[in-house]
Specification:
This protein is α+β, with helices and mostly antiparallel strands. It is 35% helix and 30% strand. The chain folds into two domains: 51 residues; 94 residues, Roll (PH-domain like).
């Protein structure tokens, strides 16, 4: 578990739970662009003189609002990712409402590896990604991350700050769950 300021553990965190997160502030700029598209659509609907006909105006309004909603909510879902590791599971939640979310039992994990080179470019952009030759990933920024090797042969990569600590915790928990490991 991470230490809080001045070496104290935060009182709201259970000692057997490790939490971490990664944030991408650039996504906020994209969210603002989405909000601006929505505002433009609303402005067109409210203040238009309707002189060019109803169909083009409706198409412009609906187009602006739809594009704005897609950009706004699509980017807000990946402003940050939160990783939680307890005694039995690893849980990944995206954005402010925690969706998409993936919960992986530690019994499904073979190993965990630290990587310092997760980049959106290698995964095809930000977000929840799948590439057949690379596996699945949640990428919200470039930098360090955790690569999980799963029993089914797939990998799952998560960008998270202090990924080395996450890997240590996961490996420690995996050592407890393997046959012959000391009971805890």
């Amino acid at each position: 578990m991470r230490d809080h300021r001045h070496g104290e553990k935060p009182p709201h965190v259970h000692p057997d739970v490790w939490t971490g997160r990664a944030t991408n502030r650039v996504q906020w700029l994209l969210a603002l662009i989405g909000a601006a598209c929505m505002a433009l659509g609303i402005e067109l609907a409210v203040d238009s003189a309707w002189t060019s006909g109803i169909a083009p105006l409706v198409m412009a309004v609906v187009g602006c609002i739809a594009a704005g909603l897609l950009v706004l909510f699509g980017t807000l879902a990946f402003v940050h990712v939160a990783l939680r590791v307890d005694e039995e599971h690893l849980e990944v939640r995206c954005g402010h409402i925690g969706v998409p979310r993936r919960r992986i039992p530690l019994s499904d994990v073979v190993g965990a590896t630290y990587t310092s080179h997760v980049t959106p470019r290698h995964w095809g952009g930000w977000g929840y990604r799948w590439r057949p030759e690379m596996g699945t990933a949640v990428v919200v920024r470039r930098g360090e991350g955790v690569v999980l090797e799963l029993w089914d042969g797939h990998t799952f990569t998560i960008t998270v700050d202090d990924a080395e600590a996450a890997v240590r915790v996961i490996k420690e928990r995996l050592g407890r769950t393997k046959p012959g490991a000391a009971a805890h």
